[in-house]
Request: fold
Amino acid sequence: MHELSIAMALYEACKKEPHRPEEFLVEVRVLIGEFAGVQPDLLEFAWKACIRETPDEGATLEIQYEVARQVCDQCGPVGERQPGSWLRLCPHCGCPLRIEGGHELDIIALCFEASEVLARTIPDLDASTCANGEAVRACARIDLRNHPGKRNRHEPS
Amino acid sequence: MNRAEIRKRILAENDECADRLRSQFEDVGSLVLDLVSSPGAGKTTLLEETASRLAAELDMGAIVGDIATEMDAERLRHANLPAHQIITGGACHLDARMIEEGMKHCAFLPVDLLFVENVGNLVCPASYALGEDFKVVLLSVTEGEDKPFKYPAIFSKAKVALITKVDLMPQLSFDLERVEEQIRTLSQDVRIIRVSAWTGEGMEEWCQLLRQERMKKKLATGVH
Ligand SMILES: Nc1nc2c(ncn2[C@@H]2O[C@H](COP(=O)(O)OP(=O)(O)OP(=O)(O)O)[C@@H](O)[C@H]2O)c(=O)[nH]1
Ligand SMILES: [Mg+2]
Ligand SMILES: [Zn+2]
Reply:
Protein backbone atom coordinates (compact mmCIF):
# COMPACT_ATOMS: atom_id res chain seq x y z
CA MET A 1 0.00 0.00 0.00
CA HIS A 2 2.83 2.47 0.72
CA GLU A 3 4.97 1.85 -2.36
CA LEU A 4 4.24 5.35 -3.62
CA SER A 5 5.59 6.93 -0.41
CA ILE A 6 8.64 4.67 -0.67
CA ALA A 7 9.20 5.56 -4.33
CA MET A 8 8.96 9.27 -3.54
CA ALA A 9 11.40 8.95 -0.65
CA LEU A 10 13.70 6.96 -2.93
CA TYR A 11 13.71 9.61 -5.64
CA GLU A 12 14.37 12.37 -3.11
CA ALA A 13 17.25 10.34 -1.63
CA CYS A 14 18.75 9.74 -5.10
CA LYS A 15 18.67 13.43 -5.96
CA LYS A 16 20.58 14.20 -2.78
CA GLU A 17 23.49 11.97 -3.72
CA PRO A 18 26.46 13.88 -5.13
CA HIS A 19 26.45 14.30 -8.90
CA ARG A 20 27.31 16.97 -11.42
CA PRO A 21 24.52 19.27 -12.55
CA GLU A 22 24.64 18.03 -16.14
CA GLU A 23 24.21 14.44 -15.01
CA PHE A 24 20.98 12.46 -15.06
CA LEU A 25 20.04 9.54 -12.96
CA VAL A 26 20.09 6.48 -15.20
CA GLU A 27 19.89 3.63 -12.75
CA VAL A 28 19.28 2.97 -9.10
CA ARG A 29 19.58 -0.37 -7.38
CA VAL A 30 17.73 -1.09 -4.15
CA LEU A 31 17.71 -3.89 -1.62
CA ILE A 32 14.23 -4.79 -0.40
CA GLY A 33 13.91 -7.17 2.53
CA GLU A 34 11.09 -9.62 3.00
CA PHE A 35 9.75 -7.57 5.91
CA ALA A 36 9.83 -4.24 4.14
CA GLY A 37 6.18 -4.60 3.18
CA VAL A 38 7.04 -3.62 -0.35
CA GLN A 39 5.76 -5.40 -3.42
CA PRO A 40 8.52 -5.17 -6.07
CA ASP A 41 6.11 -4.75 -9.04
CA LEU A 42 4.18 -2.05 -7.25
CA LEU A 43 7.39 -0.25 -6.32
CA GLU A 44 8.52 -0.30 -9.92
CA PHE A 45 5.17 1.05 -11.05
CA ALA A 46 5.29 3.79 -8.40
CA TRP A 47 8.89 4.62 -9.36
CA LYS A 48 7.89 5.21 -12.98
CA ALA A 49 5.08 7.47 -11.82
CA CYS A 50 7.49 9.45 -9.61
CA ILE A 51 10.09 10.17 -12.27
CA ARG A 52 7.59 10.87 -15.05
CA GLU A 53 8.15 14.29 -16.58
CA THR A 54 11.27 14.90 -14.50
CA PRO A 55 14.77 15.23 -15.96
CA ASP A 56 15.37 11.70 -14.75
CA GLU A 57 12.45 10.13 -16.57
CA GLY A 58 13.50 6.73 -17.83
CA ALA A 59 15.91 5.94 -15.01
CA THR A 60 15.70 2.24 -14.32
CA LEU A 61 15.03 0.77 -10.92
CA GLU A 62 16.61 -2.55 -10.15
CA ILE A 63 15.22 -4.39 -7.17
CA GLN A 64 17.18 -6.97 -5.27
CA TYR A 65 14.86 -8.92 -2.99
CA GLU A 66 16.28 -10.34 0.21
CA VAL A 67 14.67 -13.11 2.23
CA ALA A 68 15.09 -12.94 6.01
CA ARG A 69 17.47 -15.53 7.46
CA GLN A 70 16.79 -17.85 10.38
CA VAL A 71 19.84 -18.46 12.52
CA CYS A 72 20.63 -20.94 15.28
CA ASP A 73 23.06 -19.64 17.89
CA GLN A 74 24.71 -23.10 18.04
CA CYS A 75 24.60 -24.31 14.44
CA GLY A 76 24.51 -21.10 12.40
CA PRO A 77 22.14 -20.16 9.59
CA VAL A 78 19.38 -22.56 8.60
CA GLY A 79 19.47 -23.28 4.85
CA GLU A 80 17.28 -21.74 2.18
CA ARG A 81 13.69 -21.13 3.14
CA GLN A 82 10.67 -20.02 1.18
CA PRO A 83 9.31 -16.57 1.99
CA GLY A 84 6.48 -16.96 4.48
CA SER A 85 7.51 -20.36 5.80
CA TRP A 86 9.14 -20.38 9.19
CA LEU A 87 10.77 -22.83 11.53
CA ARG A 88 10.28 -22.42 15.24
CA LEU A 89 13.22 -24.63 16.27
CA CYS A 90 16.58 -25.54 14.80
CA PRO A 91 16.29 -28.77 12.77
CA HIS A 92 19.70 -29.91 14.11
CA CYS A 93 19.73 -29.11 17.80
CA GLY A 94 16.19 -28.02 18.65
CA CYS A 95 17.13 -24.55 19.93
CA PRO A 96 14.83 -21.61 19.16
CA LEU A 97 15.90 -19.74 16.03
CA ARG A 98 16.69 -16.07 15.68
CA ILE A 99 15.72 -14.02 12.63
CA GLU A 100 18.33 -11.89 10.91
CA GLY A 101 17.64 -9.23 8.31
CA GLY A 102 14.47 -8.82 6.31
CA HIS A 103 13.86 -5.17 7.14
CA GLU A 104 16.23 -3.83 4.47
CA LEU A 105 14.94 -0.89 2.49
CA ASP A 106 18.23 0.42 1.15
CA ILE A 107 19.76 2.08 -1.87
CA ILE A 108 22.81 0.03 -2.82
CA ALA A 109 23.96 1.56 -6.10
CA LEU A 110 23.36 4.64 -8.19
CA CYS A 111 24.40 5.57 -11.67
CA PHE A 112 24.40 9.06 -13.11
CA GLU A 113 25.27 9.87 -16.68
CA ALA A 114 26.14 13.22 -18.23
CA SER A 115 23.99 14.60 -20.98
CA GLU A 116 26.04 16.12 -23.78
CA VAL A 117 23.50 18.85 -24.34
CA LEU A 118 23.47 19.86 -20.71
CA ALA A 119 27.23 19.68 -20.50
CA ARG A 120 27.33 22.24 -23.28
CA THR A 121 24.58 24.39 -21.74
CA ILE A 122 26.15 24.59 -18.31
CA PRO A 123 29.82 23.79 -18.79
CA ASP A 124 31.11 25.64 -15.76
CA LEU A 125 28.80 24.30 -13.12
CA ASP A 126 30.36 21.80 -10.78
CA ALA A 127 28.87 19.51 -8.17
CA SER A 128 28.78 22.24 -5.53
CA THR A 129 26.33 24.23 -7.62
CA CYS A 130 24.06 21.28 -8.02
CA ALA A 131 20.97 23.03 -6.69
CA ASN A 132 21.39 25.61 -9.42
CA GLY A 133 21.96 22.83 -11.87
CA GLU A 134 18.61 21.30 -10.89
CA ALA A 135 16.83 24.40 -12.17
CA VAL A 136 18.79 24.45 -15.40
CA ARG A 137 18.09 20.77 -15.87
CA ALA A 138 14.39 21.31 -15.30
CA CYS A 139 14.31 24.12 -17.90
CA ALA A 140 16.23 22.07 -20.40
CA ARG A 141 13.97 19.08 -19.86
CA ILE A 142 11.59 19.71 -22.74
CA ASP A 143 14.41 20.02 -25.30
CA LEU A 144 16.22 17.08 -23.89
CA ARG A 145 13.37 14.68 -24.07
CA ASN A 146 13.61 14.68 -27.83
CA HIS A 147 17.35 14.90 -27.99
CA PRO A 148 19.17 11.86 -29.33
CA GLY A 149 21.76 12.09 -26.56
CA LYS A 150 19.07 11.47 -23.98
CA ARG A 151 17.27 8.80 -25.96
CA ASN A 152 20.39 6.80 -26.57
CA ARG A 153 21.05 6.05 -22.97
CA HIS A 154 17.87 3.98 -22.69
CA GLU A 155 18.53 1.93 -25.76
CA PRO A 156 20.94 -0.93 -25.83
CA SER A 157 24.03 0.20 -27.71
CA MET B 1 29.37 7.82 -16.33
CA ASN B 2 29.27 8.19 -12.57
CA ARG B 3 28.51 4.88 -10.90
CA ALA B 4 28.56 4.58 -7.15
CA GLU B 5 27.99 1.72 -4.77
CA ILE B 6 26.48 3.12 -1.62
CA ARG B 7 24.48 1.94 1.33
CA LYS B 8 21.76 4.29 2.38
CA ARG B 9 18.31 3.79 3.84
CA ILE B 10 15.57 4.81 1.42
CA LEU B 11 13.71 6.24 4.39
CA ALA B 12 16.83 8.05 5.69
CA GLU B 13 14.96 11.32 5.90
CA ASN B 14 12.21 9.76 8.00
CA ASP B 15 14.83 8.10 10.20
CA GLU B 16 16.60 11.43 10.76
CA CYS B 17 13.34 13.05 11.75
CA ALA B 18 12.56 10.13 14.07
CA ASP B 19 16.00 10.56 15.70
CA ARG B 20 15.24 14.23 16.34
CA LEU B 21 11.94 13.26 17.94
CA ARG B 22 13.62 10.55 20.01
CA SER B 23 16.09 13.01 21.46
CA GLN B 24 13.28 15.48 22.22
CA PHE B 25 11.43 12.72 24.07
CA GLU B 26 14.61 11.82 25.93
CA ASP B 27 15.09 15.42 27.04
CA VAL B 28 11.77 15.30 28.85
CA GLY B 29 11.90 11.62 29.82
CA SER B 30 8.71 10.65 27.96
CA LEU B 31 8.08 7.01 27.22
CA VAL B 32 6.60 6.80 23.72
CA LEU B 33 4.76 3.79 22.32
CA ASP B 34 3.55 3.25 18.75
CA LEU B 35 0.38 1.14 18.70
CA VAL B 36 -0.14 -0.79 15.48
CA SER B 37 -2.96 -3.14 14.46
CA SER B 38 -5.42 -3.81 11.68
CA PRO B 39 -8.54 -1.60 11.74
CA GLY B 40 -10.76 -2.24 14.72
CA ALA B 41 -8.47 -4.51 16.75
CA GLY B 42 -9.15 -2.32 19.78
CA LYS B 43 -6.39 0.32 19.98
CA THR B 44 -8.63 3.21 21.02
CA THR B 45 -10.60 1.06 23.47
CA LEU B 46 -7.35 -0.14 25.05
CA LEU B 47 -6.18 3.45 25.48
CA GLU B 48 -9.52 4.52 27.00
CA GLU B 49 -9.28 1.71 29.50
CA THR B 50 -5.55 2.31 30.18
CA ALA B 51 -6.18 6.01 30.77
CA SER B 52 -8.81 5.31 33.40
CA ARG B 53 -6.52 2.85 35.20
CA LEU B 54 -3.35 4.96 35.22
CA ALA B 55 -4.79 8.48 35.44
CA ALA B 56 -3.86 8.90 39.10
CA GLU B 57 -0.23 7.84 38.57
CA LEU B 58 0.98 9.10 35.21
CA ASP B 59 0.64 12.11 32.96
CA MET B 60 -0.46 10.73 29.63
CA GLY B 61 -1.34 11.92 26.14
CA ALA B 62 -2.05 10.51 22.72
CA ILE B 63 -1.46 11.31 19.10
CA VAL B 64 -3.90 9.45 16.88
CA GLY B 65 -3.60 8.86 13.16
CA ASP B 66 -6.59 8.12 10.97
CA ILE B 67 -7.23 8.46 7.28
CA ALA B 68 -10.33 10.52 8.08
CA THR B 69 -12.32 11.92 11.05
CA GLU B 70 -11.50 13.22 14.55
CA MET B 71 -13.56 10.50 16.19
CA ASP B 72 -10.78 8.59 17.93
CA ALA B 73 -9.24 11.72 19.48
CA GLU B 74 -12.70 12.75 20.68
CA ARG B 75 -13.23 9.34 22.26
CA LEU B 76 -9.88 9.59 24.05
CA ARG B 77 -10.52 13.11 25.31
CA HIS B 78 -13.86 11.90 26.58
CA ALA B 79 -11.90 9.26 28.53
CA ASN B 80 -9.76 12.09 29.98
CA LEU B 81 -6.76 11.29 27.82
CA PRO B 82 -5.55 14.49 26.11
CA ALA B 83 -5.31 13.67 22.42
CA HIS B 84 -4.36 15.19 19.10
CA GLN B 85 -5.77 13.81 15.87
CA ILE B 86 -3.63 13.59 12.75
CA ILE B 87 -5.75 13.14 9.64
CA THR B 88 -3.47 11.55 7.08
CA GLY B 89 -5.83 12.22 4.19
CA GLY B 90 -5.28 8.85 2.58
CA ALA B 91 -1.83 7.85 3.80
CA CYS B 92 -1.97 4.36 5.30
CA HIS B 93 0.59 5.04 8.05
CA LEU B 94 2.02 7.81 10.20
CA ASP B 95 5.53 9.04 9.46
CA ALA B 96 7.94 10.94 11.66
CA ARG B 97 7.29 14.23 9.86
CA MET B 98 3.58 14.01 10.69
CA ILE B 99 4.39 13.46 14.36
CA GLU B 100 6.82 16.39 14.38
CA GLU B 101 4.18 18.60 12.82
CA GLY B 102 1.39 17.23 15.04
CA MET B 103 3.38 17.86 18.22
CA LYS B 104 3.18 21.59 17.55
CA HIS B 105 -0.51 21.32 18.30
CA CYS B 106 -0.18 19.25 21.47
CA ALA B 107 -0.51 21.72 24.34
CA PHE B 108 -0.53 18.76 26.73
CA LEU B 109 3.13 17.85 26.08
CA PRO B 110 5.41 16.86 27.68
CA VAL B 111 3.86 13.84 29.36
CA ASP B 112 5.25 10.79 31.17
CA LEU B 113 3.69 8.47 28.67
CA LEU B 114 2.81 9.33 25.08
CA PHE B 115 0.77 6.88 23.02
CA VAL B 116 0.82 7.07 19.26
CA GLU B 117 -2.19 5.27 17.81
CA ASN B 118 -1.19 4.49 14.25
CA VAL B 119 -3.54 4.18 11.29
CA GLY B 120 -5.28 0.79 11.30
CA ASN B 121 -2.91 -1.21 9.07
CA LEU B 122 -0.61 -4.16 9.78
CA VAL B 123 1.80 -3.56 6.90
CA CYS B 124 2.99 -0.03 6.27
CA PRO B 125 3.48 1.32 9.82
CA ALA B 126 6.18 -1.31 10.39
CA SER B 127 8.65 0.54 8.13
CA TYR B 128 8.37 3.97 9.73
CA ALA B 129 10.22 4.96 12.88
CA LEU B 130 8.40 7.70 14.80
CA GLY B 131 10.89 8.28 17.60
CA GLU B 132 9.07 5.72 19.75
CA ASP B 133 10.68 3.57 22.43
CA PHE B 134 9.01 0.54 20.94
CA LYS B 135 6.09 -0.65 18.88
CA VAL B 136 3.14 -2.52 20.36
CA VAL B 137 1.16 -4.73 18.00
CA LEU B 138 -2.44 -5.65 18.75
CA LEU B 139 -4.15 -8.69 17.26
CA SER B 140 -7.78 -9.37 18.15
CA VAL B 141 -9.04 -12.91 18.50
CA THR B 142 -11.64 -12.33 15.77
CA GLU B 143 -8.93 -11.85 13.13
CA GLY B 144 -7.90 -15.48 12.74
CA GLU B 145 -4.73 -17.18 13.89
CA ASP B 146 -2.69 -16.99 10.69
CA LYS B 147 -2.00 -13.27 11.00
CA PRO B 148 1.55 -13.23 12.45
CA PHE B 149 2.96 -15.24 9.54
CA LYS B 150 0.93 -13.20 7.05
CA TYR B 151 2.23 -9.93 8.48
CA PRO B 152 5.68 -10.90 9.78
CA ALA B 153 7.20 -7.42 9.57
CA ILE B 154 5.28 -5.87 12.42
CA PHE B 155 5.32 -9.01 14.54
CA SER B 156 9.08 -9.32 14.20
CA LYS B 157 9.56 -5.67 15.13
CA ALA B 158 7.12 -5.16 17.99
CA LYS B 159 8.45 -5.55 21.51
CA VAL B 160 4.98 -6.18 22.95
CA ALA B 161 2.13 -8.11 21.34
CA LEU B 162 -1.35 -7.80 22.82
CA ILE B 163 -3.95 -10.42 21.95
CA THR B 164 -7.11 -8.37 22.37
CA LYS B 165 -10.82 -9.12 22.94
CA VAL B 166 -10.06 -12.43 24.66
CA ASP B 167 -13.50 -12.16 26.32
CA LEU B 168 -14.85 -13.38 22.97
CA MET B 169 -12.91 -16.65 23.12
CA PRO B 170 -15.91 -18.78 24.17
CA GLN B 171 -17.64 -17.85 20.90
CA LEU B 172 -14.65 -18.59 18.69
CA SER B 173 -12.33 -21.36 17.64
CA PHE B 174 -9.23 -19.21 17.88
CA ASP B 175 -6.10 -21.18 18.75
CA LEU B 176 -4.27 -18.88 21.19
CA GLU B 177 -1.29 -21.20 21.63
CA ARG B 178 -0.76 -21.45 17.90
CA VAL B 179 -0.81 -17.69 17.46
CA GLU B 180 1.58 -17.15 20.32
CA GLU B 181 3.90 -19.78 18.88
CA GLN B 182 3.90 -17.90 15.55
CA ILE B 183 4.65 -14.62 17.27
CA ARG B 184 7.52 -16.18 19.24
CA THR B 185 8.92 -17.64 16.04
CA LEU B 186 9.12 -14.15 14.58
CA SER B 187 10.51 -12.52 17.70
CA GLN B 188 12.37 -14.28 20.48
CA ASP B 189 12.08 -11.62 23.15
CA VAL B 190 8.55 -10.35 22.50
CA ARG B 191 6.27 -9.94 25.51
CA ILE B 192 2.81 -11.35 24.80
CA ILE B 193 -0.19 -10.34 26.92
CA ARG B 194 -3.76 -11.54 26.49
CA VAL B 195 -6.15 -8.69 27.24
CA SER B 196 -9.80 -7.76 27.26
CA ALA B 197 -10.84 -4.16 27.67
CA TRP B 198 -14.33 -5.53 28.43
CA THR B 199 -13.60 -7.84 31.34
CA GLY B 200 -10.29 -6.23 32.35
CA GLU B 201 -8.37 -9.49 31.89
CA GLY B 202 -4.66 -8.78 31.37
CA MET B 203 -5.14 -5.04 31.83
CA GLU B 204 -3.25 -4.99 35.12
CA GLU B 205 -0.31 -6.83 33.54
CA TRP B 206 -0.30 -4.33 30.66
CA CYS B 207 -0.45 -1.36 33.05
CA GLN B 208 2.34 -2.87 35.14
CA LEU B 209 4.50 -3.14 32.02
CA LEU B 210 3.81 0.54 31.27
CA ARG B 211 4.78 1.56 34.81
CA GLN B 212 8.03 -0.41 34.59
CA GLU B 213 8.97 0.87 31.15
CA ARG B 214 8.23 4.44 32.20
CA MET B 215 10.40 3.97 35.30
CA LYS B 216 13.25 2.57 33.17
CA LYS B 217 13.04 5.53 30.82
CA LYS B 218 13.00 7.94 33.72
CA LEU B 219 16.13 6.38 35.20
CA ALA B 220 17.89 6.14 31.84
CA THR B 221 17.26 9.78 30.94
CA GLY B 222 17.65 11.18 34.44
CA VAL B 223 14.47 13.25 34.10
CA HIS B 224 12.14 13.17 37.11
N1 LIG C 1 -15.60 -7.85 22.93
C1 LIG C 1 -14.69 -6.89 22.93
N2 LIG C 1 -14.80 -5.87 22.03
C2 LIG C 1 -13.87 -4.91 22.04
C3 LIG C 1 -12.78 -4.94 22.94
N3 LIG C 1 -12.01 -3.86 22.68
C4 LIG C 1 -12.59 -3.20 21.66
N4 LIG C 1 -13.72 -3.82 21.28
C5 LIG C 1 -14.63 -3.40 20.21
O1 LIG C 1 -13.96 -3.45 18.95
C6 LIG C 1 -14.38 -2.40 18.11
C7 LIG C 1 -13.19 -1.61 17.61
O2 LIG C 1 -12.50 -1.03 18.70
P1 LIG C 1 -11.58 0.27 18.55
O3 LIG C 1 -11.00 0.50 19.90
O4 LIG C 1 -12.35 1.36 17.94
O5 LIG C 1 -10.50 -0.27 17.55
P2 LIG C 1 -9.29 0.53 16.86
O6 LIG C 1 -8.18 -0.43 16.73
O7 LIG C 1 -9.03 1.78 17.60
O8 LIG C 1 -9.92 0.85 15.42
P3 LIG C 1 -9.31 1.86 14.30
O9 LIG C 1 -8.76 3.04 15.01
O10 LIG C 1 -10.48 2.19 13.45
O11 LIG C 1 -8.27 1.06 13.58
C8 LIG C 1 -15.33 -1.54 18.94
O12 LIG C 1 -16.65 -1.87 18.61
C9 LIG C 1 -15.01 -1.94 20.35
O13 LIG C 1 -16.11 -1.80 21.21
C10 LIG C 1 -12.70 -6.00 23.89
O14 LIG C 1 -11.79 -6.13 24.73
N5 LIG C 1 -13.68 -6.95 23.82
MG1 LIG D 1 -8.91 3.73 16.89
ZN1 LIG E 1 20.93 -25.59 16.15
In short: Chain B has a mean pLDDT of 96. The domain at 3-221 of chain B is CATH 3.40.50.300 (Rossmann fold). Residues B 37, 39-45, 72, 120, 164-165, 167-168, 196-198 surround guanosine-5'-triphosphate (ligand 1) (CB under 6 Å).
